[in-house]
Amino acid sequence: MSTEPKQRDLVVTRLFDVPVEQVWKAWSEPEHVKRWWGPTGFTCPLAAMDFREGGTSLVCMRAPQEYGGQDMYNSWTYRKIEPNKLIEFIQHFTDKDGTKLDPTQMGIPPGVPHEVRHVITFKALDGNQTEMTVTEYGYTSDQARDLSKVGMEQCLDKMVASLK
């Protein structure tokens, strides 16, 4: 009998009324990432992008003052990039220098893995529309997965608005 907790993956799909190239830029270019990274009310003061297979980007989300105003950093280390089709990266919680941190030490609920594998797929549709799906792997509690899903949905709401 396995003692490993059951993994719960998160999947969010969005439809954009812009061509796939524009949605791709939202993930690959710093000025675009800064417009949408972070849930509602959060800002992104830093998106240091090294967008290539084997590269690592460092992104920061700043909480609004009513939530303490602190900066939270993530690194995205790219495993696979297929232009306008797929991005696969491993996300880590880090400090401002990119040093990996334990999510629980940052007040993140238990069930969030130390590294979260992300796969983002892009599908060009008729009428210059794009379907994008974000899949995050490895959550070990419903609470952690559901909290991350709310955050990702809010990020994607901001992405939709930034691409209009």
Break the fold down into its secondary structure elements and pairings.
Layout: E1 8-16, H1 20-28, H2 30-36, E2 43-48, E3 56-62, E4 71-82, E5 86-94, E6 115-125, E7 129-139, H3 142-162
Antiparallel strand pairs: 1-7, 2-3, 3-4, 4-5, 5-6, 6-7
Helix pairs in contact: 1-2, 2-3
Walk me through this protein's architecture.
This protein has 164 residues and is α+β, with helices and mostly antiparallel strands. It has a single domain, classed as START domain (Alpha-D-Glucose-1,6-Bisphosphate, Chain A, domain 4), CATH 3.30.530. It is 23% helix and 40% strand. It has 3 helices and 7 strands. The chain has helices at residues 20-28, 30-36, 142-162; strands at residues 8-16, 43-48, 56-62, 71-82, 86-94, 115-125, 129-139. Strand 3 and strand 4 form a beta hairpin. Helix 1 (20-28) crosses helix 2 and helix 2 (30-36) packs across helix 3 (142-162). It is globular, with a radius of gyration of 16 Å. The mean pLDDT is 94.
Distinctive features:
164 residues, alpha+beta, Alpha-D-Glucose-1,6-Bisphosphate, Chain A, domain 4, 23% helix, globular
